[in-house]
């Protein structure tokens, strides 16, 4: 019985060894235009999510929760995020992607804090959800 379980166990481990863990923004298809971004009814999530326009008016260090698209990466960990109301610069460390890839047409949620000391203000992202 031990011999028959060992090959099965090895077969389950092999795909994880081949997994690509590069993650980050994959520039493929263009994101939808701002007027076409509508993610539908989300229940209680709508109460916690704000718009880019609202986020820019918050105080320095405010907790930010946005839903939209990552549309451009300018190298390193700097990205441009867009929703229906506008665009904002973000700083997303590679570790936040956790090996996941995000394309410009993927609707995502980001959570982080607003840094108004930088010009223009940026969101320092600590969590992404696809």
Automatic annotation (TrEMBL):
Q: Which Pfam families match?
A: BOF
Would I find Signal among this entry's keywords? yes
Q: Where is the signal peptide?
A: 1-19
Keyword terms of this UniProt record:
Signal
Instruction: Kindly indicate whether the keyword Repeat belongs to this entry.
Output: no
Superkingdom per UniProt: Bacteria
Name of the protein: TIGR00156 family protein
Organism name: Enterobacter sp. (strain 638)
